[in-house]
Amino acid sequence: MYHRRTLLPVVLLFALVAAGWQLAAPPLPATPKHPVEDEYQGVKVTDDYRWLEDGKSPEVIAWTQAEDAHARAILDALPIHAEIQQFLRKLGDASSPNFYDLELRRGILFAMNSQPHKQQDMLVTLRSPDDLASKHVVLDPMQIDSANSTAIQFYVPSNDANKVAVSLAQGGTESGTVHVYDVATGHALSDVVPTAIGGSLAWDPDGSGFYYTRYPREGERPPQDLNFYAQLYFHKLGTPASEDTYVLGKNFPRIAEITLSTSEDGKYLLAMVENGDGGDYEHFLRGLDGKWTQITHFEDGIKAVALGNDALYLLSRDHAPHGKLLRASLSAPDLKDAKTIVPESKAVIQDFRFSLAGLQPSFVPTPTRLYVTELIGGPTEIHIFDHDGRALGTVPAELVSTITQMLALQGDEILFGNVSYVNPMAWFRYEPASKKVAITGMRASSPVSLADVEVVREFAVSKDGTKVPVNIFRRKGTKLNGQNPAILTGYGGFGISMTPFFDPGIRAWLDASGVLAIANLRGGGEFGEEWHTSGMLTHKQNVFDDFIASAEYLIKAGYTNPAKLGIEGGSNGGLLMGAVLTQRPDLFRAVVSVAGVYDMLRSETTLNGQYNTTEFGSVKDAEQFKALYAYSPYHRVRDGVKCPSILFLVGENDPRVDPWHSRKFTAALQAATASKDPILLISFSNAGHGGIGSAEDQRIAMDTYVVEFLYDQLGVLWVAPEILK
Predict the structure, then answer these.
(1) What residues form DSSP beta bridges with 684?
(2) CA torsion, ordered 264, 265, 268, 273, to nearest 10 deg
(3) pTM of the model
(4) Residue 581 to residues 14, 45, 348, 636: CA-CA distances in angstroms?
């Protein structure tokens, strides 16, 4: 899962089905049981569908294709299918260009750029955020792959802004290969360097080469370890990758994940090492003398480090679950000598923002200022401090919004992205001398207005009495008569916070009297480290209890009723869907689950599942096994239970969650349910995790299936939005 929000909430639009729609669909395949018995911690467990784990088996391929054909035939036949697809396409075509993942080098602004009518996002440069006419395309993936299956995984410009290293991955695999491009001409250099999944890169100060993360090659470790033990290597431009030199990491943990960053001048290099996906880090600093110093250990509670001109700024959660900021010497760093400059407060200091290049600190030092992103239960805002921690106020921004990124400009000026539930993304410039904010030319516009929409925050009470925030989208004047169709979504894991976002696609859903609710569940980071840890490992059931309480609240408060309530989630949120539908099948009418983890006893047999053990737990630990087995969705399927309608979607190239999870769970549910409601599985053969890296056409196809399934199963009539008229 690599600590990136793996699936944003889907566009919430739906379709009405004609009577008899199942008659033309090819039948579901025969799914025999071939029991395999395992023993965990003295408990014998039978697995009837182990054979579906072998994705290369001809029998499994045929079974998957038959399931896929059955599901697509049903959904393709819906009368509204083409209109929904057309709406989603027009929505994208009418949207404005968007800029994200910005980097600044020598006054040149680098950015990822999504454009209407483009299948993949491009890498561009601009002279200024106010001069969009200066946009220069450095790399357009569509020009190197006519099939549109190649995507930019991440990019890093050299310090002189003349070159840029770009990791390219195909078919959603996220297995990137780094290519180097001349920024002015866009021409590729001869260098081609494979990196680790979720890899990272940093240039040498003189631009003669770069440091990067990679896995061991054949002969360096046993075959079973070749996708683990990530290490740091150096590549000199113009030489073959086989001659790259080892730098650091032979003693890192087996499931280490490495993120690199440099000081502004590139002379200091920081390596952040994460022990799997559980949120523990250690840090190593390469100084001016070329020597490496370990500055933090996993047990120190240091979550993020930012490099200033003459100091290190460290976010500590040691005895401070909301976070405190420390300052240490850059030239001679020693954690025991670090000074606390921003003590813990009620607000939560956000640790990271999620960028293509990896985890980036959510606090930015400038020559005399320190800009800090703070979480307030979901929404974020920027607080300003001087280097001694004296509070200097906040940066003006929209209320109840998300700060997407901060970028230091000249002096103490910053550029920051801001988005809310009702206003699209825009980039602003903050000038501390005047304390004024000015919107730049990099601002998105929306083809639809959400001016008549309100988002209210209410609270559900979980099983143990914990208050759980529920953010509810509704049109002003919505009647709370229990008859509104509603969608509830959540995530609840890996310390990832559900923050405000803008989605014009909800316009049609709200016009149909629909309600959208987003729950801030434990396991996320909305209220600090304690909120995260109370929803991980042996406490994971709290996440499911929080979600069930949120659903019950929507019903009790008069927003909806079980016959009109649908739920949606992906990845860790897919695990959430599997858990709650097996624990409370009576509570929901329809479920959409994308790329979910369902067999919690076998998950760690997969490559990425081993990285997830620091968040989920392991069957090798007695207490963790007990918790995993208690909620594992695949093992909680019971014969004769009436399941709600369910749609599973997977990408066959998914490197984060193996698609066999969905195959096995689908088979078990189809065999066990006493309901006639559909349980469907759609597999995309050239896609990865939740649509990551997919071309625009493929993302629209995925969203269309989700949209029409929920519309149909919740009995909502389609009303064509204005954009179609």
Answers:
(1) 651
(2) 40
(3) 0.95
(4) 21, 21, 32, 10
